[in-house]
Amino acid sequence: MKIMKFGGTSVGKPERMHQVKDLITRDSEKKIVVLSALSGTTNALVSIGEALAEGKKDLAKERIDTLHKHYLAFFPELLKTEAARKKGEKIIQEHFEFLNILLKISFNEAINRDILAQGELLSTKLFYTLLQELDIKAVFLPALDFMSIDENNEPELKKISEKLKSILANYPQDRIFVTQGYICKNHRNEVDNLKRGGSDYSASLIGAAVNSEVVEIWTDIDGMHNNDPRVVDKTRPIAQLSFDEAAELAYFGAKILHPASIWPAQHANIPVKLLNTMEPNAPGTTITSKEQGTGVKALAAKDGITAIKIKSTRMLLAYGFLRKVFEVFEKYKTSIDMITTSEVAVSVTIDDLTHMKQIVKELEAFGTVEVDKNQTIISVVGNMIAESKGTLANIMDCLRDYPIRMVSYGGSRHNVSLLVEAKYKNDALRSLNEGLFSW
Ligand code: ASP
Ligand code: MG
């Protein structure tokens, strides 16, 4: 069994959906196909929810109509026979009627999550109709029948596995299963989701749940690159990464893979492959538990970072001080990315500013607090970075022209993180690219 997940751009145009159909029928292996919503759809659904939350029903209606038009233009391109087109039309009608009904009832968060789920429901149903039209035997597998999260929004892997296995047992002869990424049920049995970009996470969870041979993540780029291709001219795909290296890269900014999607595959020791729909024979990136090679493999950058410094001559040396500081962040469910300490101060970074005000207020009980917004974390990722001679010196040399606000080194063997003001990011990435990768 293998898992093949296709992202928004891979299903975003009728011809792309046809390519997906070609890719899943290239071999006769048993597979679960996980689809995202068509590109742009989830953003549109978010904006419909926002308009409703603000009580702007006319605006919400306008946005629903625009999206509706998009689908009405999409399906006749996708489906050719009269019978299939009828089905496609009906699917679209059903989901847009649903959205229009929501306009009439009072809005709440549960309704918002129902709105967000429409994208994946539409994409999978339309794709399944295409398979039916072409007489490709497949089973439609609603994610809401098996994908679930608990009261802390954590996926219930054991339950998911039990449910999915028992559903699959009903179809011993079938080779192709089609399901939705992103969407799930929560502990109140309401429709929920795995957060933006969560289809990768779905794929990895499904892989772990059925113990698949591989989880393939199909996108529109040929694997994880050694630097940000939007910033640096010459980047190249990395053939092999360990789970730990991939997790650092995904977390610290490589957009190709949702960071949470590493752990289920790692836990079940299932290789993850990042592949390109447009270049299906390119090797892409393979992520496994194997640690290969030493030294720097890739760079990533994460924007929108805020640094918070707590300075306290009185308390820093006292045991329990860091605990108190961390408890404040824990209380507001805000995770910390980087930490550095000195005798008199501790600096941390966060990217979620939802509770910033309260956090700063509570930290002020311990000392003076300074906040620097608009920072970027640059992460240098590889294997045994600390052990490879001269690497840190090289990194610092590349960055000699830029003020570095924080450095985190030695936390793992895979990562050196540096915090710079956002305005230095692009130049710093280019300079590191030249200095660290020679070709
Ligand atoms: N459609 C969802 C999103 O755009 C999930 C995903 O594509 O991974 O965030
Ligand atoms: Mg994605």
UniProtKB/TrEMBL annotation:
GO terms for biological process: homoserine biosynthetic process; lysine biosynthetic process via diaminopimelate; threonine biosynthetic process. Substrate binds at residues 42, 120. GO terms for molecular function: aspartate kinase activity; ATP binding. It catalyses: L-aspartate + ATP = 4-phospho-L-aspartate + ADP. It is an enzyme of class 2 (transferase). Pfam families: AA_kinase, ACT_9. Residues 310-379 form the ACT domain. Its EC number is 2.7.2.4. One of its GO terms (cellular component) is cytosol. Pathway: Amino-acid biosynthesis; L-lysine biosynthesis via DAP pathway; (S)-tetrahydrodipicolinate from L-aspartate: step 1/4; Amino-acid biosynthesis; L-methionine biosynthesis via de novo pathway; L-homoserine from L-aspartate: step 1/3; Amino-acid biosynthesis; L-threonine biosynthesis; L-threonine from L-aspartate: step 1/5. ATP binds at residues 5-8, 219-220, 230. Keywords: Amino-acid biosynthesis, ATP-binding, Kinase, Nucleotide-binding, Transferase. The keyword Transmembrane does not apply. Belongs to the aspartokinase family. This is Aspartokinase. It comes from Mariniradius saccharolyticus AK6. The lineage of its organism: Bacteria, Pseudomonadati, Bacteroidota, Cytophagia, Cytophagales.
